[in-house]
Amino acid sequence: MSVEDKLQKLWQSKRTAPAPSKEELLKKAFQVQTGIRRKLIRSSVLLLLTSAWIIYVVAAAKPTMITTWIGTALALIAMFMFLFSSAGMMKMLNNNNHTDLPVVDYLQHMIQVREKQRFLQTTIMKLYILILSAGVCLYMIEYTRHYSTTVRLLILLLALGWMAFSWFILGKRVIKKQEAAITEVIDKLQSLAKANNNLQ
């Protein structure tokens, strides 16, 4: 028996696992959406608390340099931009009327969720990091001016290094995990939709 015949026989004898039911897939999709929703809520609460703390610190410190005020404004703009963008995602995730939809329509809903999530995690997060970094740098000018140039650069590098670590290491891991979870659900919904079309 040739190698090709053996492979053909192996291929024909291979048993495929049964496809998950619509109910199982919708349950998994709901879990994925719930996970995304929880992360967005946690991020939103932290950003609101941070914004309140920044406003309190600036009001108490009464800075004299314009760079401090501009830096504070940029930091707050970055935070509220992210909050505003994530509100649209929350609205989409809170719409739970999709469980009664046909598989194809629910698939379209999940694809829209993934596209919105990608936009939030790439475009909005890049803007957020850039604006926040500029704000932090401007804010720190007034409070580090009495230090030597070396110490000022070290403080600035530590602050920017932490933001870079948060984005490039921690943030990318979370994004990759969420992307994998939602793509798995979409792939299974596509398979189920295709199987349903073949049965019709």
Describe the structure using short key phrases.
200 residues
Characterize this entry briefly.
This protein is an all-alpha fold.
Give a structural overview.
It is a single chain. The protein is an all-alpha fold and 200 residues long. Helices cover 86% and strands 0% of the residues. The chain has five helices and no strands. The longest helix is centred in the last third of the chain and has 51 residues, at 149-199. It is elongated. The two termini are 39 Å apart.
Describe the SSE topology.
Blueprint: H1 3-13, H2 22-61, H3 66-94, H4 103-144, H5 149-199
Helix pairs in contact: 2-3, 2-5, 3-4, 4-5
Q: What separation lies between the terminal Cα atoms?
A: 39 Å
Largest sheet: none
Weakly predicted, low-confidence segments: none
Total DSSP helices: 5
Mean pLDDT: 82
